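Box 3.1. Reading complex inputs
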Amino acid sequence: MKIDPPLPPGGGAGSLADRQARLVAALTCGAPVPSGFDPRLIDVARVALLRKRAGEVAGQWPRLAAAYGPRWPREFARWAATRPTRGPLRDGWDLARELGATLPAQAGGELAAREAAMRYDGASAPRPRRLPAVRRAAGTTVVQIAGRVWLIGRGIG
Amino acid sequence: MTAYGVGIGWRPEIAGFVAGLPGLRFTEVVAESVHAHGDLPPGLGELRDRGVAVVPHGVKLSLGGADPVEPARVQHLAAVARRLRAPLVSEHIAFVRAGGVEAGHLLPVPRSRAAVAAVVANVERTRAELDVPIALEPIAAVFDWPDDELDEAGFLTEILDRTGALLLLDVANVYANALNRGTDPVALLDRLPLERIAYVHVAGGAEHDGIYHDTHTDAVPQPVLDLVAELCARHRPPALMLERDGDYPLAEALRDELDAIAKASGYPVVTG
């Protein structure tokens, strides 16, 4: 007679929680595909997820995406492949900050406007600024007063 | 549930189009996009006030997660349902985060007893906060878990029986799963409790790398409309709605898709 092994407790190895965590890590962090799954299909799902994220980030950061033209989905996917999503606003923000001075002017203005309007520490959700702010990115300077944003200069940085 | 006929998912990008549908009696809004207390998205309150049923559709509860649903997310869903005077809410049989990491998408749970137990427990936790019924939507999955103990129909029926929840059947998901697994979508319809359907999703998709993806950004293919007709020939659900989530086409194309769903289901057109 076959006796089933006892179910592992809550978060132990082999528990549902552990197996779900390993699957998410494979899909979002570049971790190995857990054994038993079809590696080809997991890769199809992983790529589809990156394609969907690229579209969502382009919706929040249209000028950043436009700076890449048709290469955007591929370039975003390359950056995002080992970075799980923190939502399209923060994903685009993190990428734009990394690109920094190399951002094309239009995308720089988009970044500067966001930096002036919201406080974002890179670790928790961005929050609207209460006080006026001046920010500059990739040569574009932006002023925010009472939530309204003005672009005041380009090519002076 | 009242027979609402044909509807469409409300999204800010197509709010004007949705508001302009003269026969509309039913729509759905992504629950996480509605504030629990702040302003409603422009136009949504007007739809509700003219008697259109608005169903909050959750996408981030992670009912299929091994961990308990987060109470704040459940309370938000319940609060949005009250604000919208919704006749019901809906969520997915899926998980969206694990180990503290967001997947960014709806992921399938294993069709195992342990996963059924996790889903049932989370649905119970959610229903404890809700004033209205919940409908559960099976998802489209590109891959399966290696050690499924139940088939799709057995898995879904067990969850519905144990929770008493309604079914939100997405015929495009049924089509996608059948195509990708090489199974018969109509055979699945014949094994599901169709009388438990609260409403139906209809959406488009596209093929990449030999796999059909349920994208919601492409046109509804004819086989999905054929499946709507197959479903309605067996048991016509109270409502069917078009789900479109991006790459919005011209109003005329959306109108044609709504009319095609009306034709396939036998409900009156809502476009004019």
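In summary: Chain B has a mean pLDDT of 96.
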